[in-house]
Design a protein that fits this description.
Blueprint (H helix, E strand, L loop, with lengths): L1 H17 L15 E2 L2 E2 L5 E2 L2 E2 L3 E4 L5 E3 L4 E10 L5 E8 L3 E6 L1 E3 L6 E2 L4 E5 L3 H4 L6 E8 L2 E3 L7
Antiparallel strand pairs: 1-2, 3-4, 5-13, 6-12, 7-8, 7-11, 8-9, 9-13, 10-12, 13-14
Length: about 160
């Protein structure tokens, strides 16, 4: 009985340690709703496709935090030499792949970050899209390979 109880306790502790935490991308969480350029919620229409994430309003220069612990990959969202280049920071671990867009990174490819760690600053989207689109951090979450609505997860 003692051995079985010990194994059960170890299993509970391992499960607690493996539980993946999701952190907020910005200090203040305010969803981008409907505006002249579209909608910022999960599943919103983008013509022939759906919005694969949620947009959280922010100001250019705001700190952006890692939504999960994991390994970093830096990519491009859009690049237009005459306007701006927008980047995404992807964070990947055993459970989640999280794409945070419109972030000027302070981290590098291959870095390991912790949930809540500063990964960059929010970029000015108005420089690319014009004045109609509010500045925001786009967050897309895939859990175990399946696209997931970030809003109920991020608190």
């Amino acid at each position: 009985k003692i051995i079985i109880m010990g194994i059960q306790i170890i299993t509970i502790i391992k499960n607690m340690m493996m539980k993946q935490t999701i952190c907020r991308p910005l200090k203040k969480l305010k969803l981008r709703g409907k505006d002249p350029t579209g909608n910022g919620w999960y599943g919103a229409s983008r013509g022939s496709r759906e919005h694969k994430g949620v947009d959280y309003l922010g100001n250019p220069g705001d700190e952006v935090f890692a939504c999960a612990s994991g390994k970093i990959r830096i990519g491009r969202v859009y690049s237009n030499p005459s306007k701006s280049e927008f980047t995404l920071v992807e964070i990947k671990n055993k459970t989640y792949t999280i794409k945070q867009m419109y972030v000027k990174p302070i981290v590098k490819n291959g870095d390991i970050v912790k949930c809540g760690q500063t990964i960059g600053i929010l970029q000015a989207i108005g420089d690319f899209y014009g004045d109609g689109m509010p500045n925001h951090c786009h967050v897309g979450i895939w859990k175990n390979g399946l696209l997931t609505d970030p809003e109920p997860i991020i608190k």
